[in-house]
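Open question from group meeting: does this chain pack into something compact, or does most of it stay loose? Before anyone orders reagents, we agreed to write out a predicted structure and look at it together. Recording both the input and the output here so the notebook holds the full record.
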Amino acid sequence: MNPKISVVIPVYNSAKYLRECLDSICRQSFTEWEVVAVDDGSSDESPKILDEYAAADARIRVVHKANGGVSAARNDGLDAAVGEYVLFVDSDDWLDDEALEVMIGASENSDADMVVADHFTWREKNGTETPQHFFEKEFEANSRKDLIRLQQMTLYQGYAPYASGCCDTLFPAPWAKLIKKNLLDKFNIRFNTKLKLYEDGLFILNLLQHAEKVRCIRNVVYHYRIVSSSLCHKDDIQLANDYAAIAKEVEEFLALYDEEKFLRNPFYARMLYVTKKMVLHSYFYKNARDSFFVRYRKFANLLRQSPYKEALQNFCELKLLGRDRQYGKLLHCHLSFVVGLLYELRARFL
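Structure tokens returned:
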């Protein structure tokens, strides 16, 4: 008899946290599960740990493969899964003991294609954990209009329905979402292996396009671990190319499904948001190699390109939040040099 839930875990060099993750699944009050753990070419003790757990519990299956990235690993896990539902768990995260019971109950009570639960954010650096709620109340999205609102939120959090005060950027993450496997298979919904960023967001956009009912609950059942808060700086050309690839894939999705352009402004909001990420990670950061003026010219040139140019042109229509709105307003008012200077000073003195 097939298990009810397949827990898909992509694993890459996660030995430090892997036992905690697997133990949290083995402790589940709901027992009709399987684990499909995909070892993505790990070079640490992760493969040994996975094989140890698989030998001790027949419900745990391990797929060993050459490194191909998290998207390919999740796809391989999906292809191997035989459960009626799928739940993604990252190998450095863990579940509350009743997580599966809560989520399967919510799905079966409403016949939802997907159940979205809330999570704790665990900050490894200072050992603190904070509950995060996407929405201020529980609800069901069972009309095309409601599902579009969740698609809008997937593109940018400022479009969240019933937004809570701590609604953040993690809604597009695949974890803490219990999904009917037949929906994924029927419409061949898989992770885009061409993308290095936002592949999970595109996955959720596609899922919401084909789902008929999504239930959003406020049960905090997933523990998301932030290992480090340090910035990872990337070459400006590399990061710009990564975000250009995202824009291309999302625009193809919009051309296929967004005839009435309900998702266009949320897309622009996301594109404006990612320019701020590039500001922090690629253009104006501490100990940057090029001079400020060289980096500023690159940033100014980026803003003249599509879709960033169109995002700024439509700034007044975008539901940007907090500092994103302040940042966008300066750019919309042609004060990109001021933006560059402010972030340069921030990087040097903070």
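Observations to bring back to the group:
The chain has a mean pLDDT of 94.
The radius of gyration is 21 Å.
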